[in-house]
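User:
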Amino acid sequence: MSTTATAELAVQTERRDTPRTPILRAVLLRQETWLLAVVVVIAVIASVRNPNFMNPDNLVEILRGSVIYFIMGCGAALLVIGGGLDFSVGAIFTISALVGTSLISQGVPIVVGILAALAVGALAGVVNHLIVTYWHVPPIIATLGTFFIALGLSALITGGNDVVPLPADFMKLGQGSVLFVPNVIWYGLIVGALFYLVLERTRFGINVRAVGGNRQAAVGNGLRVVRIDLVLYVLAGVTAAIAGMIYSARVGAGQVEAGGSSVTLVVVTGVLIGGVSLLGGLGSITGVAVGAVLLSVIDNALIVAQIPPQYNNVVVGAILVGAVAVDHLRRKQLYKPR
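Assistant: Predicted structure:
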C-alpha cells in the first residue's frame, strides 16, 4: 500500500472519530463522559443506601470484578471496530481454561498449561475467521455455532466435572497482590495498555478502523483485509483464553459452568456500552474500560444495597438500549456535512 493511500485512510479515519464541534461539546459527545456520570450517580445512590459501598476494600472488589470482562472486551472491541463480531468468547473462555487447568492439574508446568490455553483460544479465533471469510457465513451465525461446539467439547474434555485441585503456585497468580494491588488488576492494566497502544498508536490500529469504517475503500487502497480479520479473530480468542485462566487462578478451579452465554452477553454489552459501534470503525479501549467498570458497579451496588439481583438485568438492559441510541446520535453528528 502506498504512503499516500495510507495517509489518506488515516485522515479519513481521524475524521470519522473526531466530531466537528467545539472542544467542550466534543467531550460531552464522548461515550466515556456520560458513562462516568452514570457510574458516579450509581455510586452516590449506593452509598446513601449503604455507606460500606465506598469502603476501599469494596472499591477494590469492584475493580477486580471488572477485570475479566475488560480483558475479554479488549479483544472483542478491536474485532467489532474492525467490522467483525464474536459471540463465542464465553465458550472460548470456558474451553481454554479447562484445557489449561486440566494440564496443570496433571503436573504439566504452569507456563505450558497457560500457553496451551492461549493456543486453544487462538485456534478458536482461526476457526471463526475461516468460517466467516471462506464459507461466507455471517459472523453472528458463525460464532454462535462455534459457541455451542466449544461448550460441547468443554463438557467432553472434563466429563462435566470441574478441574480440582490446582497447584498453589498457579492460584497465587490470581489471588496474590503486588504493591497492595491485586494481581488481577495489574493484568487488566497491562492488557488494556497494550490494546490501547495497538489501537491508537500503531499503523495496524489505523488499518483496523479503516476496515471497519469502510471495508470496500480499505480493499481498494490495498489493505490486506483478510489478514487483518484473521488477527482480530485470533486476538478475540486469545483474550478470552487469558481471562479464563485468570478466573481459574482466582477461584482455584477450572469450572465447567464458568463462561458460557452469560459471560458472552456481559462482554458484548460492556463493549457496546463503552462506545464501540456495531457498525464498525468507532470505539476506544478507554470506553470499554469504563463500560466494564460500570457493569461491575451495578452488580456490586445491587448487592451492597440489598436489592434483588433480578434488577441487574433490568438496569443493564436499559443502559444498553441507551448506549445504542447514543451511538446512533453520535454517528449522525460525526458524519453531518460541514
